[in-house]
Amino acid sequence: MKDFTILNISLALIGGVSWFFFGKKSNQEKNESLSGELETIQLNISGMHCAGCAAAVEATLKMMDGIKEASVNFATSKGVFTFDPTKITKQQIVDKIKELGYDASFDLENFEKKS
What we know:
Blueprint: H1 2-23, H2 27-32, E1 39-46, H3 51-62, E2 67-73, E3 78-83, H4 90-99, E4 103-105
Antiparallel strand pairs: 1-3, 1-4, 2-3
């Protein structure tokens, strides 16, 4: 009985670890599911105080459906996003950044950095 219990626990752990590493949808599969033409936008993002803020914005946007690539640079206060316009709009990207507590702007010339 003891051996049977150990075997069941071992199988459950192996199954859980396998699902964690192999069961999730990979970025490549996510990118393949994007349809048609992709668009790229560059936004000014203000209110970031450190590289961790930039990493948080980047990671959150990468998880959104329709975003293929996201890159946020704290030093320049800019973010570059490649997305599928049939799944997400530019305004939804801006709104998500604002929801995180930062300000985002399409206006690359008249931008005041607030950090």
